[in-house]
Amino acid sequence: MTSRTVITGIGVVAPNGVGADAFWKATQSGISVLDRVTRSGCEHLPLRVAGEVRGFDPGALVEDRFLVQTDRFTHHALAAADLALEDARLGRADYEDDPFSFGVVTAAGSGGGEFGQRELQHLWEQGPRFVGPYQSIAWFYAASTGQISIRRGLKGPCGVVCSDEAGGLDAFAHADRAIRQGSRAMLVGATEAPLAPYSIVCQLEYEGLSTLDEPERAYRPFTDQACGYVPAEGGAMFVVEDEDEARRRGATVRAVLAGHAATFSGTRRRDEAGEGLAHAVRGALREAGCAPEDIDVVFADALGTPEADAAEAAAILHALGDHGHKVPVTAPKTGTGRAYCAAPALDTAAAVLALEHGVVPPTPNVYDVCHDLDVVTGSARPAELRTALVLSRGRMGSNSALVVRKGSAAAS
Amino acid sequence: MSDRLTVEELAALMKTAGITVDPTEMASRPDRSFDEYGLDSLGLLGIVGELENRRGRALPTDADRCKTPGEFLDLVNHSLMTGA
Predict the structure, then answer these.
(1) Is the domain of A192 the same as that of A66?
(2) Which residues are in coiled coils (chain B) (predicted)?
(3) Average pLDDT, rounded, for chain A
(4) Mutate which: B40, B52, B55, B65, vs A, most A CBs within 10 A
(5) 20 to 30 Å CA-CA from A119: which of A18, A102, A248, A259?
(6) Sign of CA dihedral A190, A193, A199, A203
(7) What is the dihedral sign for C-alpha A67, A34, A393, A381?
(8) Do residue A69 and residue B18 have CB atoms under 8 angstroms apart?
C-alpha cells in the first residue's frame, strides 16, 4: 500500500468562529449565526440574510504590506493558513532546507470583489491614473495561493482550482496528488468573501439564492419550506502531509484523506437526477477502499431548493443503497451560510472535528425533513465515527465527493 | 520648492503600500534597497502613480525601476526641478 496523505493542521475563519476550536464549539452546539447583511454598501440590496465573519481583525494577524495588496478573501486565507500551520506545529525551520517540497493549492469562486469594486470606482470617479497597481492581482482567483506562497516561502507545487463550489473538495485531490508525487506538505483549502455590493449583485441571478429576510427561515434544505440558500464568507485551510513525514516529525495525524472523485454533469441546469453526484460518491468510495456501510456520516451539499435537495437525496440513496436511509446526514452550513468554494472546506473541517469528537453536529433551523434521509436536526448526536463523506456541488454542474477517515484508524 | 520629494513624503507614500519606515533612518541609509524594506515592484509602481497624480505631471519612465530610496529621490527630484 502506498503512503497516505493526512491532515495535520486545520485553520478556520468562519462566521461562527475563528480557529478550529471556536468553530467546532459553535458547530456542535447547533447555533445559527445567520443574520442581516451589514457589510458596507450592501444594506439596500435584495439579499437580506448571510453568514458574515464578524470580529475578525486581519490587521492583528497579517502584516500591512500583505493587507494593502489583497482582498478580504485573501485576508481570510492568510489568517486561516497561519492557524493551520500553527495547529500542525509546522514552522519555517521545518521546510527551509527544502522549500520546493511544500506547496499551496486553494479553490476560489468569488474572487476579490470588494477590492476590485473599490478600484473600478476610482476608475470611473477619478480616471485610470487613480487605479492602484494591486488591482492587477488582488481580484484574481489565484491571489490567495500566491500570497500564501510568497509570505511563507513555499516554493512547491502551487495552484488554484476553479471548478465552482466543488473545487473546495477538488483542491484536496490536487494536494493529495502533489504529496504522492513527492511533496512533503501542502497547504490546501478555500476561503471566500462574496459579501461586497458588486459580488452580491452578481449572485442575485443565481439559482437558489434566498432573499428571505428572516434569518431562521432563509436556509432550510431538505424541508418543505426549502427556499434556497444564503451565502457566507470565510473558509478553512489545512496542512496535509505525507503520513510517514508527518509521523517522523512527531505531528498529530488528525485525519486521512482516503478518497475523492469529481464529475461534471452540465452547465445548463443542475443535475436533477443526482446521477453525477452519485457517480462521484462511488468513485470516492472506490478510491478509499470503502463499502457504503463504512460511511458513518454524510456532510451534505444541501443547496436548499426542492429539486436540488431531491437530487442529492437520490444520489445518497443510489450510491449508498440501503445504508443511505440509515446513515446520519448533516448540513451544519445551515447555521453559517454557504461560503461557495469554502463551504466544502468548512464541511471538511467539521467532518474531521466530528470524527475526533465522536459527535455528528446538527443542521440548524431544519425541522420536519421531507426526504427519506436521517438528517440530524436539533442537537448533536453522539456516534462512533470512523469515516465521513463530504459532498459538494457547483452551480454550473460540478459534483465532488471526499472521504476522510479518523486519524487513528488502522492503515489496513 | 514644495515640489521637491522629501524622505518624509516618500516614507508616507511607502506607508500606503503597507511599509512602515522611519524617515530619519531612510535618510541615513539611502542605499538600503526597497526590497529590504519589503516594498515590491508593484508597490513602487503605485508610489510613482500617486506622486504623478499629486504633482500633476509624469515622472521618468524608469522611476519605478529604482532599487533604493536614494536613487529614487535623486531621479524624481532631478526630474521635478528640471521639468524633464
Answers:
(1) yes
(2) none
(3) 95
(4) B40
(5) A18
(6) positive
(7) positive
(8) yes
What share of chain A has pLDDT > 70, as a percent? 98
Q: Quote the domain boundaries for residue A47.
A: 5-248
pLDDT for res A409: 44
The β-bridge partners of A269 are none
- pLDDT of A276-291, one tens digit each? 999 999 999 999 999 9
Closest Cα in chain B, distance from residue A344 (Å): 33
Residues in chain B: 84
Closest Cα in chain A, distance from residue B28 (Å): 23
Topology given in CATH for the domain delimited by B7-82: 1.10.1200
Percent of the residues in chain A that have a pLDDT greater than 90, as a whole number? 95
Residues ≥6 apart with Cβ < 8 Å to A4: A242, A243, A256, A257, A258, A411
pLDDT of B50 over the 50 cut: yes
3-state helix, strand, coil in chain A (%, to 5): 40, 20, 40
**Final residue in a domain of this structure, among A222, A248, A274:** A248
- Distances in Å between the Cα of A12 and the Cα atoms of A27, A214, A340, B44 are 12, 26, 15, 33
Q: How far apart are CA A152 and CA A20, in angstroms?
A: 21
What span, in angstroms and rounded, lies between the C-alpha atoms of A370 and A209? 20
Question: Could you tell me if A296 and A350 lie in one domain?
Answer: yes
Surface of B (46-75) touching A: CB under 8 A: 46, 49, 52-53
Phi and psi at residue B29, to the nearest 5°: -130, 65
A253 touches chain B (CB under 8 A): no
A30 grid coordinates: 447547533
**What pLDDT was estimated at residue A2?**
61
